[in-house]
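TA notes, week 10

Several of you asked for a full example with nothing omitted. So below is the full record: structure tokens for the whole chain, then the designed sequence directly under it. When grading your own attempts, check the secondary structure regions first.
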């Protein structure tokens, strides 16, 4: 799909006043101000954990902005130096740049640093597809911000109590368990190359959580061993790596030997009738885990079906 750069004249800015109201009207209602802000005065959010990709979806967004303008204003806050910090709308900002626009319609909000972090994470967690690495750093940033807010608003609460309360609140908001949130946050301890393997589905999520407890040097050894053996550790192997590391006995050779143990598991699936049913997205070395889970699920469905027939 071609992107016509520089067709800013097609954007109908005036129509947005009907949607959002004039600034004077918004001020009278106690609403945030809507401004047309130059793109070169808007800075990205510091440590923004979400990727902004130039792909087919971006091409469609650029075309939409060329034809209709930015339908939903971005959210920014003004900084002490007079510039603006982008809270929500990083994809829209890039699309405006690609469309040849010089300004972007933004809602200007007054937010503290922690409130800005929470708002930034909330707006981006609405995406349909989010990488494990994006969730990991987003959950960490938001949880830290919520913990700081808790310490300020409840000085009688112990640091551990504040953390637990923040964990529970975040878990409820995003719809996952507290333990799962902590697992995601553990991924931020991975070296970048291993974290990329998780995003690429070449390394399982749970094994990666166990591996995150290894030192950076040990993780680099593991990465080298994975490349040499062309495999990824299973949950059991990752747990073993973690335990040996904790005992101080993990070496390059020990990692290599532990990864080689899974070659015995692979031999169980030489039958093409089995291997062809295993999705390509399953990391190498984790085929056994996948087949076991599939059989467990099948057995549960079979038992449920037989139970209904016996009624």
């Amino acid at each position: 799909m071609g992107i016509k750069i520089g067709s800013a004249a097609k954007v109908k800015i005036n129509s947005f006043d009907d949607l959002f109201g004039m600034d004077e009207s918004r001020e009278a209602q106690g609403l945030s101000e809507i401004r047309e802000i130059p793109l070169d005065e808007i800075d990205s959010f510091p440590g923004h954990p979400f990727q902004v990709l130039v792909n087919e979806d971006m091409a469609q967004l650029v075309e939409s902005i060329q034809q209709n303008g930015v339908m939903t204003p971005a959210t920014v806050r003004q900084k002490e130096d007079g510039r603006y910090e982008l809270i929500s709308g990083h994809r829209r900002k890039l699309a405006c740049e690609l469309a040849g626009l010089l300004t972007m319609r933004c809602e200007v909000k007054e937010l503290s640093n922690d409130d800005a972090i929470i708002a930034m994470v909330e707006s981006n967690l609405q995406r349909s597809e989010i990488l494990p690495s994006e969730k990991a750093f987003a959950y960490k940033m938001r949880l830290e911000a919520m913990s700081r807010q808790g310490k300020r608003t409840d000085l009688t609460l112990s640091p551990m109590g504040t953390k637990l309360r923040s964990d529970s609140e975040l878990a409820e908001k995003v719809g996952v368990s507290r333990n799962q949130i902590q697992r995601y946050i553990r991924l931020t301890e991975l070296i970048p190359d291993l974290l990329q393997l998780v995003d690429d589905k070449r390394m399982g999520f749970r094994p990666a959580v166990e591996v995150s407890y290894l030192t950076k040097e040990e993780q680099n050894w593991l990465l080298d061993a994975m490349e040499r053996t062309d495999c990824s550790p299973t949950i059991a192997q990752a747990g073993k790596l973690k335990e040996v590391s904790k005992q101080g006995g993990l070496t390059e050779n020990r990692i290599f030997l532990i990864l080689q143990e899974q070659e015995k598991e692979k031999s169980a699936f030489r039958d093409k009738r089995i291997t062809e049913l295993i999705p390509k997205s399953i990391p190498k070395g984790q085929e056994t885990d996948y087949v076991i889970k599939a059989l467990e699920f099948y057995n549960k469905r079979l038992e449920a079906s037989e139970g209904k027939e016996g009624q």
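Residues 204 and 212 are 12 Å apart (CA to CA). Use that as a sanity check on your answer.
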